[in-house]
Each structure stands twice: as C-alpha cells, then as structure tokens.
Amino acid sequence: MRRVLGSDAGLRKFVIARALSRAGDSVFPIGLAAAMIQQDFGASEVGVVMGAALAPVVVLMPFGGVLLDHFNARVPMVAADIVRTVVQGLLAVLLLTGRPSLWQILVLSLVTGASQAFFQPGIASMLKQLAPGRLRQANATIRTVESVVSLAAPALAGVVIGLADAAVVVALDACTFAASAWMLAGIRLGNSEPVTGPPKVWRELREGWGEFTARPWLWSVVSVFSLFGLVVFGPFDVLKAILLIERFGAPAYAWLMSGFTLGAVLGGLIALWTTPRRPLRTGLLALLGFTPLPVTISLDLSVALVAAAMVVGGTANAYWAVVWATSVQTHAPAHALSRIHAYDVIGSMALMPVGRALTGVAAAWAGAATVLFTSSAALLAGCAVLLSIPAVRSLPAVLPARGPSAPSISTRKP
Q: Across the strands, what pairs with 399?
C-alpha cells in the first residue's frame, strides 16, 4: 500500500477521507436501526427510512454528475460532507432527547441522500486525477484501508450501544463526515481545467447518457444490478438488521457486521495482489461467494456459522467492487466520468429504495425466510446471465503504461 500511495499527499488525504467516511457509513445503519427498534419502530418503518435515504440519490445523481464533471469535483464534495455533518448531528440530537416522529427521521434521511447525490459521482473522477495509471492498485488500497478502519467500527458501535445509547452512534457518523470534509478540503487538483461558464445541464446529461449506453458491458451490468437492488440487497439490508438483532441482540449484530468488514479487508487485499485479464468475469465468479449469505441469515443457525458466511460474503462483495470500479474508471472517457459514474450508481441503486421499503410487507406476506431465499436465487441467476454476455465476460483489463504513453488494453488470451 505504501508503494501505491508513494509521496502523493493528495492521494493519501483522499484515502483517509474515504476511510473515515466508510467507517461512519458502516455504523450508521446499525445505530439508526437499533435506535428505532429501541424506540418501538417496526420493520416496515425501518425499511421505509432506509429507502428514503436512497430515493433522492436516484433522482438527483445525474445532476450531481453534471456539476462534478463541469467544476472542480472537490468543492461540491466538501460542501456535501458539511451538509451531512449538520443533518446527522441534528438526527442524533433528536434521537438522544426523545422519540422523534417518523416524518422527522424521513426528512433528515432525504436531505442526507440529496447530499450524497452531489458527492458520490466525484469519487471516480477525483481518483482518476490523483492516481492515473494506478487505478486498480488505488481502488484496491482504498477498499482495503476503508475495510481495515471500519472493521473495528461496528464492534465499537456494539460497545457504545451496550454502554450508552444507539443514537450516540449516529452522532459519531456526523463526526466522520466532518473529518472527511476537512481532509478533502486540503487536496489540490493541479490538472483541473478552469470553469468557462455554467453547465448546459440537459445537453451534458444527454452526452453522458450517450457515453453510458455506447458500452454494452456497462449498461448490462448496471441493469442486472438494478434488479439486485430490488430483490437482493434491498431486502438483505433490512432483514439482516431485524433478524440478527432479534436473534442475537444489537451488540452481537455489530460484531457480525465486523465479520463482513473483515471479509472486505481480505477481498481488497486479493484485488491488490491479483491482476485478472478479464476483470468482470473474474469479479462475477467471485461475487457468487455472496450467494449463501441471505439464506444463512434466514436460518436458525449458530452465530459462528453466520459469522463465517459474513466473512465470505464480505470478501466476495469487496473483490467485485474493486474490479468493477477499476473497469469503469479505465474504460470510460475522463471528460464524462462523473456522469457515467452517476448513471452507474443510480442504475445500480434505482430499485433499492423500493426493495427496502417493501421488505416489511413482503416478509409479512411470504415470510422473511422466503424473501431471503429468493434473494440468493436471484443473485445466482443474475451472475449467470451476465457471464453469458460476451461484452461482459470478455472485457479486457487496461494495463498500466510502462512509459509516458497512455495505458494499453490487455490482448492476452484468457
């Protein structure tokens, strides 16, 4: 990792900012779910709140992509972190001083999601400027460092919940956004082009959409992952909290989430040490390791078996995340990368709010076990479909240049 970061202060600050933000993200759902359950909110209400946090992301992300492609990405990202610091802090105060109404939690979740829409698209373009020619290593390093930092965070959340109040965890999340804003504010992007005028929003949205749809491997993966958001990740995000907290308690749930993060550390290290010639094919095969996890959550198994499934699922998910991010960053044109990343994120997340919001209803109608068995089956079928598409399974890796020339496409046979 030291070799990847080198003496580049900007890249080091970016990695630290992402690690801090990720640590907060890993504990926030734990803290909020536990706080709402402690205050007698039900599964449907928890699911609606989790879905509300994603809805404005889906709606506003394309406009965030235009803004971040047009201007220096760092400035809107810092502003978004500051807004999230204030909003999460207010949510923590409301939870600590009484039982807030559901509409108050929903409004604050919507503002948090709106801020994320003007932060998330800039990650890819900012990293591409900070680490040209080292994107796979940089992505793997970020994923590994994020996971190492957040490995202890869920465990810390469990300790905090046990000793104090679950709402304190939400306050800690606000602190991580503040720290991330401070680190990002210190980065200077020397190769940023000067702004010549306001963005032509609709034209730039169309241009970004044209770049996105021109790449079959890109829209194919995003389309399938949109369905995954509805039937796999949306239900899993809600039910894992409900079922595991009810079965083992909130502190044990936090420790189990640490197991998932331990797997993410392993997945990031594997991605750092390996160079797949067909990254999407390798990543999808690795993602199959996540398949047993929803089923495991649904069964009355011991905490040790659930922890083992968490580790394997975290490894699979992290490895896929690295190879996917690197593929998008290396194959997409730099001038439209934030917009392409925005379409990628909103496509992948478009149905996740619906999946989260409907989880309580689906579980009440068919049972939580049936919902989670369906999640595992859908993930297996979706990976099989993507592996059957030549543009996906044959996408080559972009090899780093050995000299001053641009990176080249691998032509080696798989």
A: 408
Instruction: Please give the Cα distance from 107 to 87 (Å, whole number).
Output: 10
Tens digits of residue pLDDT in 4-45: 555 577 888 888 888 877 777 777 777 888 888 888 787 778
When the pLDDT of each residue in the chain is averaged and rounded to a whole number, the result is 82
For residue 110 the two structure tokens come to 């919507």
DSSP state of 192: P
Listed residue (123, 177, 160, 150) closest to 325, CA to CA: 123
What are φ and ψ of residue 188, in 5° steps? -115, 125
Q: What is the CA radius of gyration of the chain?
A: 20
CA distance 177 to 346: 22
- Is the dihedral angle over the CA atoms 231, 257, 272, 72 positive or is it negative? positive
Compute the average pLDDT of residues 279-303: 93
Look up residue 148 and give its two tokens: 């190492």
**192 contact partners, CB below 8 Å, separation of at least 6:** 72, 129
Which residue in the block uniquely carries the two structure tokens 């940089």? 138
Please give the Cα distance from 395 to 408 (Å, whole number). 13
User: Beta 408-409 vs 398-399: how paired, if at all?
Assistant: antiparallel
Residue of higher predicted confidence among 95 and 254: 95
CA–centroid distance for 187 within its chain: 22
Distance, in Å, from the CA atom of 289 to the CA atom of 317, rounded to the nearest integer, reads 8
Helices 166-185 and 74-96, axial angle in degrees (round to 10):
160
DSSP string, 274-320: ---SSHHHHHHHHHGGGTHHHHHHHS---HHHHHHHHHHHHHHHHHH
| Residue 98 zone, left/alpha/beta (φ > 0; ψ -120 to 50; rest) | left
Q: For the residues 67-92, what does the mean pLDDT come to?
A: 85
Q: How far apart are the first and last CA of the chain?
A: 27
Q: What is the pTM of this model?
A: 0.71
